[in-house]
Amino acid sequence: MAATVFGVVVLWPSEAEVRAPQGYAVERAHGEITDLHRCEDRQSPPDCLAASVRLSEGPDAPDTVEASLAFGEQAPTFEVGDRVVLGYRANASMDERYSFIDFDRTRPLLLLAGLFVVGVLILSRLRGMGSLAGLGISLLVIIFFTLPALLAGSAPLAVATVTASAIMILTLYLAHGLSARTSVALVGTLGALVLAGALGAVFTTVGHFTGYMDESVQFLSMFGGEIDMRGLLLAGLVIGALGVLDDVTVTQASAVWELAAANPYTSRPSLFAQGMRIGRAHVSSTVNTLVLAYVGASLPLMLLFAAADVKVRDAVGTEMVAQEVVRALVGSLGIIAAVPITTAIAAIVAGTLAGQAGTPRPPACRVTRQ
Fold first, then answer.
1. Domain 27-104, CATH 2.170.270.10 — does that match?
2. Mind listing the pLDDT tens digit for each residue in 127-167?
3. Burial category of 286 from C-beta neighbours within 10 Å (exposed 0-12, middle 13-18, buried 19 and up)
4. CATH code matching the domain that covers 125-357, chosen among 1.20.1640, 3.10.20, 1.50.10, 1.20.1070
């Protein structure tokens, strides 16, 4: 814990270090479409579409402004009443100041988040409140520490390690309480995470990954900062693996604890063996879930390769697909390592505590012949 606090203090960026990129920031406005019509400019294409938008946020709110919309075969469909996000350019003419950027999805996302919160609270009650608080803390750590530290040019792997440690300490103890069981899960998660990070570092180097795998990273490189793109890839791998690892380690620690409580006199090797039987089933389902999640993330690209009749070997070898393969396999190896690490530590600690709390072992019965 002290090392985590030290890491946060050392890597915490100052306001001077976090420099906003010049020329890329776009002022945004939010509003609702009240009318759709063709563009008034005679030189505009026939399918050019514009809208009257009543602003709820932005430089000219609450006025109604004219905004140009996306048009063409691949353009989205617009309707009166749609909530949209507009880009604002102060130096442009009145007719060109506002342009469509995206739909405003705040309301449906808030509704979905509300359903998620209600579901967690109904099922888990007080413990669910702790889990939700832990989720909020995780997001705050990433927003206020991880992202600014990366933008300031700090080593991505160091930032990811400190981020993961801080999230583990705060969320695990908040969700599951201060106990030896939670501490065992924390140590098991940390051990598996170190292994995952080491494997990721080795194979991103051996595989000659550059980190420039999609348009967002390429735009990020234009900012002119000192961000290590390959390190950024590795940092994402470490933080992504954390979400699965803590689930596995908490489950394993809890399982071993319950086994020890049910029979305080079970030996530590027996506790380990019983815990591993539970862990094997958990690993099988979790690994499958993790791999399918990464496959789903790359599905559009894989579909493109299939349509272009690209060989599987060549498709998997491209950096965009290969990085997902590395993430899936490294994360899976982390899960595989987390089970025996956590189970072994839990068997030692839980077995000791259960033996100390149990009643004295009854003397062995001796059978005597008459």
1. no
2. 788 888 888 888 999 999 988 888 887 888 888 889 988 99
3. buried
4. 1.20.1640
